Structures are given as structure tokens and as C-alpha cells.
Amino acid sequence: MRKITLLLILLSSSTFSQKKSLELFIKSGVSHSTQQADYNPISHIRPFNKGIQGCFINLGLEKRLSPKISLTFGCQFLEKGFKVTDKYYYSYTENKDEEYQYRLNYLEAPLCINYQTNGRSKLLFGIVPSYLIHENYRYRYKTVLNTYITPTMVDYYHSNPYSDAFDRLNKWDCSASIGLNYKVYEKIYFEGTIQKGFVRIDKWKEDDLNYNFSFLLGLKYNLN
Fold first, then answer.
1. What are the C-alpha distances in Å from 25 to residues 9, 19, 22, 47, 82?
2. 23 CB burial (10 A radius; 0-12, 13-18, 19+)
3. Inter-CA distances, 70 with 16, 19, 61, 125, Å
4. Does domain 23-88+102-141+157-222 have CATH number 2.40.160.20?
5. pTM for this structure?
6. CA distance linking residue 38 with residue 36, whole number of Å
7. Residue 220 to residue 126: CA distance in whole angstroms
């Protein structure tokens, strides 16, 4: 009887440890996305004011492989893209500012290896396959009139979002990611990551649309 009781205790403790080694989490936050001209991960990045701000949400699982190493995988929604601004001077009294925005909505499947550096911090290294589910092309401009009576008069014109009908963009992308995870509270973590795309998203191969580049900042919450 004592042996059977001991065996049941060992089995229950083993089952409990297996459940704790697999954690369900949700992660959400803000993003800043822009474009790069080539494969180099640190050069030819568009300036900060040429990017767009968006949001992301991620639902996933974390599997502990060892005391210091774990694996995360899940499903993520992320808005990427960039913008281009131009200024035209027609005369001394009139000029025009134009802005083009590409907003690209991706559904992603991030796979990441986490390395525990100390009790609170983890280094994140991963790969992120992405599929483009929707794209918006937005155009707006403003006309500035400088007159003697009214020093500055600005008229804004906003176009409706326009989905590209020419099948210009590649649907699939694949990115490398690197980041840092920091434990804030019992089940709450602060996380920052950088994603660098390796698939040229423009089928026409023009200068504006090249490789996705995104910064993500958010909070992760363990659900179990």
C-alpha cells in the first residue's frame, strides 16, 4: 500500500510539472514599421518619420525545454508599412504637401527560442513567417496658401483607403526577430523585439517597396 501511494504521488507530481512546462500567453502592444533598401540588417533604414505606427496582438504557447531555454510559438496579427512625403512649391504664395501611406496587415506565426539570462530577463531569437491578409494604400495632401491678408491657410484633403487592384505585393514574407523579455510582476512581462524581413514585398521591384522592418513594444501575460 505504501508503494502504491508513493507511486501515485510521483505520477501526480510528474503530471503537474509537465503542465507547468507548457504555458498559454497573450501579448499585445504597439509597433513602428518602415522599410529597408537591402538585406543589411542595420543600414538603409527609412527615417523614423517615414514609418507608420500600428498595433499587434499575439496568442501563443511557451514550452520549457530546460531551466534556461524555452520555445514559444503562436499566431500574431501585425500592421506593417511605411509612408512617403513630398513637398512641391508652385509659387511664392502656394505650396503643396503630399503623403502616401502603405498599411499592410499580416497574419504571422512567430517561432522563438528564449534564453534565460537571469531571474527576470530573457533573450529572444526567432523566425516569423507572415501572410499578407489586407493592404491599404492611402493618399492625402494639403495646400498651403500664403497671402498678404491671411498669412497661412491650409486645406486638407483625405482620400479613402484604396486596396491595390494590380496584385503588386507578395503575399508571403519571412522575418528574423531578436528581442528582450523582462519580468515585471508574477505573470506580466515587458517585451521588445525587432523584425527584419528577407522577402522583397514589391513584385514590381521599385525603390519604394523593399523589405519590411518593424519595432514592437508590448506586454505579455501568462494565462495559466
1. 29, 14, 10, 33, 29
2. middle
3. 18, 14, 10, 11
4. yes
5. 0.75
6. 6
7. 17
From 135, 140, 149, 219, select the one nearest 184 (Cα to Cα): 219
Contact 138, 81 (CB under 8 A): no
Beta-carbon count within 10 A of 106 CB: 28
What is the rounded average pLDDT of the residues 86-107? 75
Taking the C-alpha atoms of 121, 127, 129 and 134 in order, what is their torsion angle to the nearest 10 degrees? Answer: 50
Domain boundaries, the chain: 23-88+102-141+157-222
Contact, 204 vs 169, CB < 8 A?
Answer: no
23-73: pLDDT as tens digits: 999 999 999 998 776 655 555 555 556 788 899 999 999 999 998 999 999
- Give phi and psi for 2, each to the nearest 5: -60, -40
Does pLDDT of 129 surpass 60?
yes
By 3-state DSSP, what share of the chain in percent is helix, strand and coil, each rounded to 5? 10, 60, 30
Sole residue written with cell 514559444 = 72
Instruction: Give the number of residues written for the chain.
Output: 224
